[in-house]
Design a protein that fits this description.
single chain; alpha+beta; Beta Polymerase, domain 2; seven-stranded mixed β-sheet; 9 helices; 11 strands; globular
């Protein structure tokens, strides 16, 4: 478990990342909003959930694409936009903004990973759908996201292998693409990767502002509906200590990760495509 002082110092760095992302978004008219645990922290604690060790934001696909194009040119040098384009060993489907002078080792990683391991902010993307049934959406979403990952075989490996063998995951993805829409009226918003929640467009837009650690950031229009969809009706209640989840098994500040050391050793540019 991370000691309290280290966590508080890490949260200050992550807040700096969020402030920088907000600056870029405001300058370039890019809409984003606080999401997931960060939004819950803003509503329930007016800042970080006391044990939280990352920051989550979300964007619509078109805003997300614009941000990915602009961020490498505008981010302060102390931060790094991490995607598989600039970090070939990074295998997540969403980008992160990393601090370049810290090490954040997640529970399932080692301190020898070749991808960038700085403190981070997660950027998730949502698509618009004209699908109404949450049951149908979640069924399709479940199948779409099934993949065989050799380094993460679990108890469902055989089940996953059957689905992938019959290409049911590809069929589900194609069906979901059929439901994509550019219309705002009566549309639903769903995460592109990892989460199965489905939101009403009007519960998110127009965006509002909310206080987080003494600063104002964008948030969904109806935070109550948003958080109930994620966490249920009791989201304002503190969970028991055993259910207070953090991501890191180790945080080291003022230290370069392997990725940064390799940049210095090879002279490779930070945003050189790999």
């Amino acid at each position: 478990m991370i000691n309290e002082k280290t966590l508080k110092d890490a949260q200050k760095i992550m807040l700096e990342i969020l402030i920088e992302v907000d600056r870029i978004c405001m300058k370039n008219n890019i809409e984003y909003w606080l999401a997931d645990g960060t939004l819950l922290g803003a509503v329930r604690h007016r800042g970080f959930i006391p044990w939280d060790d990352d920051i989550d934001i979300c964007m619509l696909k078109e805003e997300y694409n614009k941000f990915l194009e602009i961020a490498p040119k505008e981010l302060k040098e102390k931060f790094f936009l991490q995607t598989s384009k600039y970090d070939k060993n990074y295998n997540f489907l969403y980008p992160k903004i990393r601090d370049r002078n810290s090490i954040f080792i997640e529970k399932y990683d080692s301190n020898q990973e070749k991808f960038h391991q700085g403190l981070n902010l997660d950027i998730f993307v949502m698509d618009r759908y004209f699908i109404r049934s949450k049951i149908l959406y979640r069924f399709l979403y479940f199948f779409k996201n099934i993949k065989i990952e050799n380094n993460r075989i679990n108890n469902y490996y055989f089940f996953k292998k059957i689905i992938v063998s019959f290409k049911l995951n590809i069929c589900a993805e194609k069906i979901l693409k059929f439901f994509l829409t550019n219309k705002k009226q009566n549309s639903r918003l769903g995460y592109r990767y990892y989460w199965k929640q489905l939101y009403k467009y009007n519960d998110i837009f127009p965006l509002k502002e909310i206080e987080f650690e003494g600063y104002k950031f964008s948030c969904p229009n109806n935070t109550d509906a948003y958080l109930k969809e994620l966490y249920g009706d009791t989201y304002m209640e503190l969970p028991p200590e055993k259910d207070r989840v953090w991501h890191a098994k180790e945080i080291r500040l003022n230290e370069k990760c392997f990725f940064e050391k390799e940049l210095e050793r090879t002279g490779r540019k930070l945003y050189e495509e790999q």
